[in-house]
Amino acid sequence: SVFENPTAASLSVAHRIGDLIKEKQKNNSKAVLGLATGATPIGVYAELVRMHKEEGLSFKNVITFNLDEYYPMQPDAAQSYVSFMNDHLFDHIDIEKENVNIPDGTLKLEDIPAFCLAYEKKITEVGGLDIQILGIGRTGHIGFNEPGSAPNSGTRLVTLDDLTRRDAARDFGGKTFVPTKAITMGIGTIFKAREIILMAWNQKKASIIKKAVEGEISSEVPATYLQLSDHVEFILDKDAASLL
Ligand code: GLP
């Protein structure tokens, strides 16, 4: 769907998440959310916080799994995705700490494969992701699945693209300070979600959105894999959709 502006689009995504949480509450079950970082979902999180504060929406029955984290990364660093999620969402709602899952950027290299398998297993054990929200990087990455990622890939350590590191340079005070690696859910992990929502706004996303939606399916643009799924929705503003 194409919305007039990012705010309208963000509200619609937040309200779908809110509806899912309330529906699960009625059945006394848990809502399992796959969450993303970056500028794109900030408005969604702001609306969820507003719904918590003003409408009493509770997150006690919510379990979250974040897509990715830089590696190496200390959780209390300003640039960590842990800090991002705390600042924009978790510090402002009543979610239980033990229900929050974010890949661990402090692991020893040799412990990463076991951690990644456990991350996948935990998602499965809680019943799988009900909704996965995604942004898109200018390389066509979803999560940190850069060009070359396999469609059946699982959670793993990856090397970041140069363009991705350049885009992150502002947050780190220069590209040389951006970690070269990250731990990310795989394309296969994302695909298992019952509902996938990819969001993009602004003109600078228009050309990658055109490739993702209309381009040939290829590992060169990992977001094109989403064309293969029947439970994906692209939520765009007019500018991001302008080349479609
Ligand atoms: C990072 C994140 C992605 C995100 C992308 C786009 O690379 N790992 O999940 O989609 O940035 O970021 P933004 O929303 O700021 O454009």
TrEMBL record:
Keywords linked to the UniProt accession: Hydrolase
GO molecular function, one term: glucosamine-6-phosphate deaminase activity
Domain of life: Bacteria
Segments forming domain Glucosamine/galactosamine-6-phosphate isomerase: 6-227
Protein name: Glucosamine-6-phosphate deaminase
